[in-house]
Amino acid sequence: MTGRTRLQAVRTAVWAGIVAFGLMAGCSRTPPAIRDLPELPAESSKDLALARTAPVLMTKSATVATPPQPPDGGAIFQIARACTTYYDGYVIYPMTVCYPPSDLFANLVVGAFDTPAVDGGVMSKAPPTKYFKLTSPPQASVGGHWFCSVRGGPWFGHVEGQQICGVNPNIRLFHADILGAPETVVVNWSGALTDVPPPLNLFGISPTSESCVCCSGVTCPNGNCAPDLQHCGVGPPALK
After folding, report:
1. pLDDT averaged over the chain?
2. Higher pLDDT, 232 or 88
3. Which helix (H) or strand (E) segment is 8 a member of?
4. Smallest Cα–Cα separation from 51: which of 145, 139, 178?
5. Which of 11, 42, 144, 229 would staple 27 via disulfide (CB 3.0–4.6 Å)?
6. Is 70 exceeded by the pLDDT of residue 227?
7. What 3-state DSSP class applies to 183?
8. How far apart are CA 45 and CA 175, in angstroms?
9. 134 exposed, middle or buried (CB, 10 Å; 0-12, 13-18, 19+)?
C-alpha cells in the first residue's frame, strides 16, 4: 500500500467515523421539520456517495465517455493540429447533498435561506431548491433520517473539449467540472458541445482560450506545425 493510498484510507475512515457519530447523536429523535419532508426520489438518490472531503452524501456523476478512435483502415482525417478549447461560465445541474442526523437540526426552518430569483438574472435560470429526507441510506452503516437539498445551481462550470489526432475533428472528448458541492462533480461525453448529456445544461458558458498540439512533426515557436525545426526557420542552417 502506497503512502497516498494509506492517507486516503485513513481519511475515509475518519469521515466514516464522523458520519457514524452524527447518526448516533441524531437518530434518537428526528426534528419535525425533517420528519415531515417527503422522501428523496430515486432519481436523486441513485448517484449518491460519501464525499471524500466532508461527512455528507452527495451526487457523484456516473457519466463515462468513450474516447473517439481512428478508423480501422488508418487515420483518414489528416489534421495538422489537435486543439483543446476551454469554456467557462454558468451551468445548471441538479446536485443533491444529504447531511446525517444531528441535534443541530432541532430548530431547522426549511427554506429559511432561500432567496427569490431576480427576473432576467443568472439565478432566474435555476429551478427552485427542493428539500427531502433520506431514510437509512445504504451508503451509511447506521440508519436515520438524513436532511437533503436538491439544488440546480447555477453553478460555475469549466469545460474542456479535446480533439484527437487521426479522428474527425468535429468529434471531441469533453470534460466538465461543476463547482458548488463539497466536491467537484465531473461529467464526460464525446461528440459536439451540444451533445452534452442531460441533466447538465450549459446555458451560460463561452469559450475562453485554446491550446493545440501538432499531430506530427514539431510545433514551431509561432504555433505552426512543421516536419522539423529547420522548416520553422529556427534550426541550424542546412549543410551544403
Report:
1. 79
2. 88
3. helix 3-26
4. 139
5. 144
6. yes
7. coil
8. 23
9. buried
Extract the C-alpha cell encoding 209: 482560450
Q: Are 144 and 137 in contact (CB under 8 A)?
A: no
Question: How many whole angstroms separate alpha carbon 59 and alpha carbon 62?
Answer: 9
- For residue 70, the model assigns a pLDDT of 58
Rounded CA separation 208/88 (Å): 7
Residues 6+ apart with CB under 8 A from 26: 100, 101, 102, 103, 105, 144
Q: What is the rounded CA–CA span in Å between residue 12 and residue 139?
A: 13
CA-closest candidate to residue 55, choices 6, 11, 9, 116: 11
Residue 217 falls in which region: left (phi positive, over 0), alpha (psi -120 to 50) or beta: left
Instruction: Record the cell numbers describing residue 194, joined without a space.
Output: 451540444
Q: Which of 6-15, 88-97, 109-118 has the lowest mean pLDDT?
A: 6-15
Q: Is the dihedral of CA 218, 221, 223, 224 positive or negative?
A: negative
The residue ranges of every structural domain in the chain are: 3-66+77-106+128-226
Please compute the mean of the pLDDT values over residues 35-52 and round it to a whole number: 89
